[in-house]
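As agreed, record minuted below.
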Amino acid sequence: MRAAIYTLGCKVNQYETREIAQLLTNNGYFVVNHKENADVYIVNSCTVTAESTRKTRQAVRHLKTLHPNSVVVLTGCVPQAFPEEALSVNEADIIIGNKNNGKIVSVLNKYFENHKAIRDIEQHDNDEEFSGTIISEFSGHTRAFVKIQDGCDRFCSYCAIPYARGRSRSKKADVVKDEVHALSKNGFKEIVFVGINLSSYGRDIGLTIADPIKIAENTDGVERIRLGSLEPDHITDDIIAELSQCSKLCPQFHISLQSGSNSVLKRMNRHYTAEEYCKIAENLRKAFPDASITTDIIVGFPGETDEEFKETVEFVKKVRFEKVHVFPFSVRPGTRAAKMENQISNETKNKRASQLTEVCNKIRAEIFASMIGKSFSVLFEAPKKGLQCGYTKNYTPVRIKSGEKLTGLIANVKITGCTDEYCIGEETEI
């Protein structure tokens, strides 16, 4: 039987798609691309914004229209956080939440017994432990994601994720060790640790984010370790000192900012100030040569004044982020921010997003230009338009001309030029 999975959302969702695929494969299914014909289509949903939920509903309806005789399953964050909204998606034959992904084979078996719709959404418990399987391969990727943390205790005023994921919980160290070892044996040179609130890893089991990194550091075959998105209030001086001792850790840190204005951060229920964030960035750059700091910023949050937006712009210029994902605020029904007064018009949000993006792109171009003449090790991925494409340790995109197949290999590259989107280089022995 053929099964396909359509994934929306973050790296954690991508990892969980691999978990689902592995479960299906181990139980006799043949997993194919979602664009191919299949007996089962699974939509692994995202609900981080209202637009994500709209795309989820659209995906379910599209797949059912194209394949009316196939079974369509809706899982992921939408049914977990907003079960009533998910249950209105009548085109789905099966609706479960991300908590029940491990039961997906048995749920499918039950459906095939009587072909009756299944609605099985089990809510997260506050005291539940980390669950999941060990992934030994990550097909189609040169780097392997390893989910080590789930859930969030922060309850930012704009975010529905704590409702979709439950409270923060961590994968045990021995399981992390087994998984990293299995991936290394299968040829993955770079391990990317991911989680919903990754930097809170270990708080429930007496560890810190430094512990899984040390495990990967001591695993033969692993040459690079990378971290997914981090929260600033967990990055202490002690953590930075520990991380700086790990030679395989890539010096790229994606630390969510959301706003450079303290008054906006307070309304967002973020747990740090702009000044504290700035100090963390300074300390990381002192501890890691060539460190890059990337981030996310929301513009047009309810009540954001012109002066507060200006504070964010000036903060970006001060910190000089290597890359910024700029998002106009998206109203997510069910969150506190959706009910706040002084909602900003779409016109103003889009205008501010364009202004901030222009500032961020200028800084990124200046950083690219400063790299010309320097040499870096690059892990190469699939080629594009006749060029070999890869990333430096600090996640700078690089493209070179080469007649060799470099996908999955690490090579030294000297930067000779740049565009607005990537650096241009040539392979070198030094």
